[in-house]
Design a protein that fits this description.
Blueprint: H1 2-15, H2 21-55, E1 64-65, E2 73-74, E3 79-80, E4 87-93, H3 98-116, E5 121-127, H4 137-148, H5 153-162, H6 169-178, H7 183-191, H8 196-208, E6 216-221, E7 228-229, E8 233-236, H9 241-257
Parallel strand pairs: 4-5
Antiparallel strand pairs: 1-8, 2-7, 3-5, 4-6, 6-8
Helix pairs in contact: 4-5, 4-7
Length: 258
């Protein structure tokens, strides 16, 4: 029966009328449109899953932890602010995460103006790309470190969040050029995964600290020269800026009281 089915199929192919060049091109175009639609649908489904996870997190990860066992956090890495600041904020971030983008748009710049540039807070970022949801996030994180080899880490960080919906390899190269990085050196670094190690290290550190979604923030009192700290507060999700300000002010007050 199987052989007969194959024979009938072969006869159908042989006897089918040949398509014109225009018809063939139209079919190819339709196939491309269908593939693009499938990719778009897959991306939407990933975002829906992440939205559900953020709206219904596990009980232990809902808000702010101030008591009980606290993780030890490595506070080294790409940083803004004074190295002598008494309070350090560590963020675990994903460049394709819509909630990380929300924090960047709604809170990051105010946090920078009010606390980082004034020398009161040191801000450290760690990579936590969730590849199951965001297929371009790991390479995007690598791109920031490759740009960082040329002193353009934070410029690339800002460019990626400003263009979150377009983070494929050619676009990463475009942003690197726009922020002033040498294109050849950047491309070599990215294509040879020279900066994959710090991204993996951020993932490992976050997992040890109990991070299961992004963004996640650890607010700690620190001393000059510290490389690790135990946070006073753990914030999970893109809280409003007044919420961040309340916790940072409390940490600063606690630091002054010591």
């Amino acid at each position: 029966m199987k052989s007969l089915a194959l024979l009938l199929f072969a006869l159908a192919v042989v006897t089918a009328p040949k398509l014109s060049i225009a018809q063939t091109r139209a079919i190819d175009s339709l196939r491309r449109d269908v593939n693009e639609l499938r990719q778009t649908q897959a991306a939407i489904l990933r975002e829906i899953r992440e939205l559900r996870r953020q709206l219904n997190p596990p009980q232990h990860a809902q808000d702010v932890a101030t008591a009980g066992p606290r993780p030890t956090i490595d506070i080294t890495g790409p940083a803004l602010g004074s190295p002598t600041a008494r309070v350090t904020v560590v963020e675990f971030s994903d460049y394709e995460c819509p909630f990380c983008r929300r924090f960047f748009d709604a809170s990051f710049h105010a946090l920078s103006d009010d606390y980082i540039r004034t020398g009161r807070v040191r801000y450290v970022i760690k990579d936590f790309p969730i590849e199951g949801l965001h297929p371009h996030a790991f390479k995007a994180a690598e791109a920031t470190h490759c740009a960082g080899e040329q002193g353009k880490y934070w410029e690339m960080h800002d460019a990626l969040f400003a263009n979150q919906s377009a983070l494929q390899r050619p676009q990463l190269a475009t942003y690197a050029a726009q922020v002033g990085a040498d294109s050849a050196a950047f491309g070599y670094c990215l294509d040879h995964s020279h900066q994959a190690a710090p991204v993996r290290r951020g993932l490992s550190e976050g997992q040890r600290a109990g991070v299961n979604g992004t963004p996640a923030f650890f607010i700690a009192i620190t001393q000059p020269g510290d490389t690790v700290a135990q946070p006073l507060y753990v914030v999970r999700g893109a809280k409003t800026y007044p919420e961040f300000r309340r916790l940072i002010d409390a940490a600063l007050a606690a630091a002054d009281a010591r």
